[in-house]
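Blinded run. Sample ID left blank on purpose so nobody reads anything into the name before looking at the predicted structure. Input follows.
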Amino acid sequence: MPPSSYNPHYQISSLLIMMASLLFADITQAEELNGNAVIRHKAGDSEIVITTTNRLAGAIHSLTWNGKEFIDSFDHGRQLQSAASFDCARPGEFWAECFNPTEAGSRSDGAGPSSSSRLLRIQAQGNQLTTTTQMAYWLAPGQKSSGRPALNKQVLSNHRLTKQVRIGYQHLDQVLDYRVTFTIPAGEQHHYAQFEALTGYMPAEFESFWKLDPITGMLNPLNDGPGEQRFPVILSTKDQQYAMGVFSPDQPAPGFEHAGYGRFRFAPQKVVKWNCVFRVRNPQGVAVGPYSYQVFVAVGTLEDVRRDLMGLINLTR
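Blinded prediction complete.
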């Protein structure tokens, strides 16, 4: 029974209990979300089917078209997903994965059944998917990448990633309209932000790398790099019957006109990848808050993808 007279300690305790209950309810709700979802839509003579899983906190585990799997989902890094990296208030210092919120989870999650990231919201219906994820850092505190240490002090970040995915864009049925919003939380200081708006890790059989000239519409072979250049990228099988390509109307990022679209071949791991990357640099500090990007992904034969990417380029000029 509460005391009959005013007791500030009791009121404070009650408030703390109520806040703790709300926090626990929110965490429980997040933990109970079902991250297993499927969306699909007719695409040419087949359909595109996209699958998310609890294991990856709602990140995209699978994309199939015409009986072919396009995603090599092995650990918690090889998906169709988004990530960000920051200099962590160290101007002029930046190394890979040092402060790296990642949608699907962390390096320590390995090929295991759960993710260090936390799924906060998911909605999937018909050909549309929406998720919000509290991203885990790729490296745990104390881990290193290329000999350099992680700068984060915990596993779960306060960075959030919201994605909205729709299969089909206007009359282009074999295209994903993929929109992502990264939210940098208050209280962090960065001078450099690198947003991997979207990356696709693909089976090694997608061995042919191409760049699309947006002026002529011609495809040209692209060497292994690795790294970025300024032309939209397509990865295809040798027989050109299956391909996936990327284009963003938000490219190029101001001050980074020479980059934006990457390609990578990891021969020992038997996987290839493409990505679409944006960067923000500000000596006075990168502003906290949302950063939104639109990315289109085309799926089909190599000619299907070339045609649809050119259609997108012309629609968004």
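Unblinding after everyone has recorded impressions. Helices lie at 8-32, 302-315.
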